[in-house]
Amino acid sequence: MKPSRLITSRNLLVLAVITEFATGLALLFDPGLLGAWLLVIDTSELTYLFARCFGLALLALALACWPGQGNTGAVRGMLFYNAAIAFYLVYLGLFVSHSLLLWPAVAFHLLMSVLLGHSYHSKEQ
């Protein structure tokens, strides 16, 4: 199988959905874990509340973007999310946190943005 056949809109969506669903579950059930590992910051009850809300939003995004017929809206949604979270994580890495684990997450979201953007624009043409 050609490598280019593996990078399809559907496969990208499945990867993005699984990743964001797992992250959403982690934020929902143990918000301090991601705060400690990914950002190396102290957490409080308030950050737990917001992290759990963010976890629920990621679960909803993952469920809404599961590939089906007419994936354009799902690709567009995941493209926006991946680009936005990549830039936000860069901001956190430069000005808030100095965790080494943050940069692989940045790289993953940037790569997903590029691949989803390519997939989205190639379908429009």
TrEMBL record:
<feature type="transmembrane region" description="Helical">
    <location>
        <begin position="12"/>
        <end position="40"/>
    </location>
</feature>
<feature type="transmembrane region" description="Helical">
    <location>
        <begin position="78"/>
        <end position="96"/>
    </location>
</feature>
<protein>
    <submittedName>
        <fullName>Uncharacterized protein</fullName>
    </submittedName>
</protein>
<feature type="transmembrane region" description="Helical">
    <location>
        <begin position="102"/>
        <end position="120"/>
    </location>
</feature>
<keyword id="KW-0812">Transmembrane</keyword>
<keyword id="KW-0472">Membrane</keyword>
<feature type="transmembrane region" description="Helical">
    <location>
        <begin position="46"/>
        <end position="66"/>
    </location>
</feature>
<keyword id="KW-1133">Transmembrane helix</keyword>
